[in-house]
User: What shape does this take?
Amino acid sequence: MSVPSDSNEGGKAEKLLVVNADDLGLSPGVNRGIFEAHERGIVTSASLMVRWPAATEAAAYAKSRPQLGVGLHRDFAEWAIRDDEWTRLYQVCDLDNPLAVRREVERQVEQFFHLMDRAPTHLDSHQHVHQDVRVRRIVEEAARRLEVPLRHDGSGVRYCGDFYGQDEHGLPYHEGITPANLERVIRGIGRGVTEVACHPGYDDGLNTMYRDERATEVASLCDPRVRRAVDEAGVRLVHFGEIGRGG
Assistant: This one.
């Protein structure tokens, strides 16, 4: 990925914002929330979990909406806090086995191509597992091969995770997903490229620690005050596939 070097009026770089919804394909309810936040709100991008049954529905929608950028949400494992301790809910492959990790990375890339008929616009991972030292190098190689950005890769895209409804202990933090907080985040966007992550959706029996907060995120992402903040802050909404191509 090439971070745009073009300038706008006054010779200063634009404020470009990617609003990326993680977990596309996780369930029909999550899909519905992401679709709504894209059509009625400010979501410009999503990360597809190719292993889940709702991924087929998600891909069909995305292919009909070219203005929605879609990347690959690598899915290696998930943890949740149970009785004040982190408990693994599932693991896709042995993270201590580099060959198993590489095979799983390749398998999920192939599945993405099968579902979307194109390359992902970007790469990231469920619960940021790609930052694990056992996984990171392999995922970085895949990003270079695909020539797409990888979250937290230091490419010049600032990552912002300030729009989130739980604290570090997994306790509810509703203030983090209000329209007011999202307005604050948007008004603080600097020049260059920023990614704001979000997790909109609707609970349809999700087995995950981040469940009830998703519907609140949908409402905030679709709030007219948030769209107004984008306009007033001089922010241009883009997806990763548009970066470096002049939108």
